[in-house]
Amino acid sequence: MTDIIATHPADIAENIIKLSKKERNLAFLKLSGDDKTKVFPYFDNDIQIELLKNLGNKETSELLNNLAPDDRTAIFVDFPDHLIKETINLLNKEEREEALNLLGYKPNSMARLMTPHYIQAKPNWTVEKVLEHIKKYGKKAETLNFVYVIDENNKLIDDLKIGQLLMAERITLISDLMDYDYVAIKTTINTDEGLEIFEKYDRAAMPIISENGTLVGIVTFDDVLEKIKERDTEDIQKFGGTEGLDLSYTKTTLFELVKKRAGWLIILFLGEMLTASAMGYFEGEIEKAVVLALFVPLIISSGGNSGSQAASLIIRAMALGELKLKDWWYVMRKELFSGLSLGTILGVIGFLRIFIWQETGIYDYGQYWFWIALSVSVSLVFIVLWGTLSGSLIPFVLRRAGLDPATASAPFVATLVDVTGLVIYFTISALFLSGKLL
Hints:
With 438 residues, the chain is mostly helical. The chain folds into three domains: 2-104, MgtE N-terminal fold (Alpha Horseshoe); 120-220, CBS-domain; 249-433, Tetracycline Repressor, domain 2 (Orthogonal Bundle), CATH 1.10.357. 63% of the residues lie in helices and 6% in strands. It has helices at 2-5, 9-17, 21-30, 33-39, 45-53, 57-66, 69-78, 81-88, 93-103, 127-137, 162-167, 174-177, 191-201, 221-239, 254-281, 283-288, 296-319, 328-360, 369-400, 410-433; strands at residues 120-121, 146-150, 156-161, 185-186, 205-209, 215-220. A three-stranded mixed beta sheet has the order 1-2-3. Strand 5 (205-209) and strand 6 (215-220) form a beta hairpin. Helix 7 (69-78) crosses helix 9 (93-103), helix 17 crosses helix 20 (410-433) and helix 18 (328-360) packs antiparallel against helix 19. The termini are far apart. Residues 1-5 have low confidence and may be disordered.
């Protein structure tokens, strides 16, 4: 236990998790009340529930009352309903009111991440009075980087860096330091929009205000960082052709893992069936020129790869706020030239491949080898162009429909381009080989 206590709270939690269930509960119980409060937020949800069940009402009450409001809200959100009701009643009146207030905001709102513990001041206060106020209440504050200035109606009118106060004379009025230039996030703003504001202004903390400008709390960067991690993880999982996992991979059951992945696989499988239908439609052409079938994997994979590349770039640019809906035409123009350039490069390589194999005797494509090579190379130009345009446009269509652009996963784009790519390939081949092989 000595090694566990003598480390950072995150390390303490990590060491306790490694113990058996019985030893884990005992080790946590032996921690001081202050250490319990610091360590508890670092446990996974299932460990937190397990530990609470082994604490008495008095210890549970002490633990929850001392937790930071934002940490407590995050814990309550993941608790079963019956456990929320049991534990929230163990809070004192003030803390219970704060918890219920925070839980009343929409699940995806920035207000869910806020803490009501911060330093505020009035314009008519002196720097000396603010510093005394910080000494008295600063220990409970989430951060001391900023002092938030409010008027008589509790409306935010400015924020001051702590450095401004430290450098000013003690008799200076707060109003003399104010420039009324500040950035705040409204309680109704969702998490994604809030993250963009945080990233844009590069702040360690941001004030949260109501619709009428009342200061109700602040959100710190550590809470935002956790949300960024969750958002990016979900997007990566979706882009891989699966639903976002509610828990980490190691904690997701086999049944849930199959359930999350099966839906997309079925959709993609049904989509690929259209590829077989397309092949069947051009069965006559394939029978007359079997050599065309040799290049089907090459053709459809090139289109799918170009589409997946474009979708990846656009979705990431959207996530970073670099692209908005209004930028769709700019993207189309850019990807048009990109697709033509990439398609031409692959088309030339495809033509040279057939030419070299024919001339060196590695494979004999027959007397119409030139027209076969031309069919393949021209098809590659158009298919890669189509894949690029499709992959870059689909995220915009999904965003316009109010859906998550990450749903335009690489497998989805590839499947779409596979089917249409075959139609393009055999249509162009029929054009060049008509009267020859066909």
